[in-house]
Design brief:
The chain has 340 residues and is mainly α. The protein is built from 14 helices and no strands.
């Protein structure tokens, strides 16, 4: 038999590093992001001068406006979350929700991890309120509103501007993303409600897909009896997405994009980009977002370099705003006292 050095073990002598499944997924997304960005940078080639605008007062004014709207979008997101929680009979202070939302943005965008900003919000608010199942359900429902609002906005954009329906692959993809998202939303709602509504205390006993479906059933059960709250949630959701489109429009103006990339074009195509970029393919949608802007805007006369620059600029704006969440992220679970 082969001898073994005293004091060692097979485990310690094995140089193989075993990564967990989440770590492998994160590594794969990092590689895909890098590859997509390399392809896009090669497409720009030596045309970076066309993609970067002159540093004029006009440019900085549009950039400042885009940054302000991006910041306002996070505030509206927290307001949407607050509206969902109120519909579920939870009333945490709004400043606490805003702090948690910024902390989640920081974690999800500045420190991409396998946990994610939504999980951070659920974990920290649950410790505040002791209502883990309801908190989880509120985040799930908040996200589901985007599945409804974004495709509707795309369809409105395609309806008000007939020319956008004649752009070949761009038009077909935008419509397909909208229709597919709505179809998926309907399937989720139907499949999760057919089994009957669970008791609230059962939400915490399920994991994975079952936990998600239980959250959807629980939330819908509450919302059908709160039409006013449901209307407020949807109104906040529409306002939030329109603010993001406004930010994209200002970013396009800062980059001096051709007039073809006007309000109705962004109304139709930005929601499709926002929907597709959340797919767990790359980090923060890098590469996916920029490639889609090339596909959607190039038929409108926007050079590839400028379309890619628009996607990168929107990413940078989101990154800058997410940095405001660093203090809230560092504070951890320090609870904000409720008003007396």
């Amino acid at each position: 038999m082969p001898s073994r050095v005293p004091g060692t073990s097979d485990h310690l002598s094995d140089p193989t590093v075993h990564l967990s499944k989440p770590q492998l997924i994160m590594a794969a997304r990092l590689v895909i992001s890098a590859l997509l960005l390399v392809v896009l940078v090669k497409k720009i080639g030596t045309n970076w001068s066309d993609a970067i605008p002159d540093p004029t007062a006009h440019t900085f004014a549009w950039l400042a406006g885009a940054l302000v709207l991006t910041f306002a979008g996070v505030v509206l997101s927290a307001a949407r979350w607050s509206a969902v929680l109120q519909a579920l009979d939870q009333h945490p202070p709004f400043r606490r929700l805003l702090s948690l939302y910024f902390a989640g943005q920081f974690m999800g965008n500045v420190l991409p991890s396998t946990i994610g900003g939504d999980a951070l919000r659920v974990s920290r608010l649950s410790k505040d309120t002791g209502e883990g199942p309801t908190t989880f359900a509120s985040v799930v429902l908040e996200r589901l509103t985007g599945w409804l609002v974004l495709p509707v906005i795309t369809l409105i954009g395609l309806a008000v501007n007939p020319g956008l329906r004649e752009l070949g692959r761009a038009s077909a993809l935008a419509f397909g993303v909208a229709a597919g998202t709505l179809t998926l939303l309907v399937l989720v709602v139907v499949l999760t409600t057919r089994a009957g509504a669970p008791l609230e205390d059962k939400l915490d006993k399920n994991e994975g897909w079952r936990r998600f479906t239980s959250a959807v059933r629980f939330g819908i059960q509450r919302l059908v009896h709160e039409p006013a709250a449901t209307a407020r949630i949807l109104a906040t959701g529409f306002t939030y997405q329109l603010i993001l489109i406004g930010s994209a429009l200002m970013a396009a103006r800062a980059l001096n994009l051709p007039s073809g990339a006007g309000p109705t074009a962004l109304l139709a195509f930005v929601p499709a980009v926002l929907t597709a970029q959340v797919l767990p393919i790359s980090i923060s949608g890098l590469g996916v977002r920029e490639g889609l802007f090339v596909l959607f805007l190039h038929p409108l006369g926007v050079p590839q370099s400028q379309a890619i620059a628009l996607g990168l600029l929107l990413y940078l704006l989101n990154l800058v705003v997410s940095l405001f969440g660093a203090p809230a992220f560092a504070v951890g679970n320090r609870k904000v006292p409720a008003p007396a």
